[in-house]
Amino acid sequence: QVQLVESGGGLVQPGGSLRLSCAASGSIFRLSGMGWYRQAPGKERELVAAVTNGGNTNYADSVKGRFTISRDNAKNTVALQMNSLKPEDTAVYYCKLQYMTSIYWGRGTQVTVSS
């Protein structure tokens, strides 16, 4: 069983930065694709950024140039560095692990961008 635990959310002013981290249990992390998703009130969950087990990344157009996803296979962690935050980035951010057809989600961490 895989468990994902997110951390690093909080309240930040527009233009500020936050770094989210997701720690994964289990031995399949290095074989898995990882992603960060977010869900704002009244909206569907959407992909923010993803990284394959080979290190290839992709980003939502809305965060390109501002967010960076990275993984550390030695520590079983994936991080999301978020810069130049905007109020529209406010959401609950979720970590996702996919190994073959198995998908696991963390419980999420709240990010609020407000002055």
Q: Oligomeric form of this entry?
A: single chain
Order of helices and strands: EEEEEEEEEEE
Helix content: under 10%
What share of residues are in beta strands? Answer: over 45%
Q: What is the tally of beta strands?
A: 11
Contiguous low-pLDDT stretches (5 residues minimum) are: none
The gyration radius over C-alpha positions equals 13 Å
* Main sheet record: 7 strands, mixed
Q: Which structural class do the helices and strands define?
A: mainly beta
Write down the overall mean pLDDT: 96
Summed up, the helix count is 0
Q: What coarse outline follows from CA principal-axis ratios?
A: globular
First-last Cα distance: 40 Å
Describe the structure.
This protein starts with a strand and ends with a strand. Helices cover 0% and strands 52% of the residues. With 115 residues, it is mainly beta. The chain has strands at 4-7, 10-12, 18-24, 33-39, 46-51, 57-59, 67-72, 77-82, 91-99, 102-105, 109-113. β5 (46-51) and β6 form a beta hairpin. It is built from no helices and 11 strands. The strands form 2 sheets. Strands 2, 4, 5, 6, 9, 10 and 11 form a 7-stranded mixed β-sheet that branches. A 4-stranded antiparallel β-sheet has the order 1-3-8-7, with no helix packed on it.
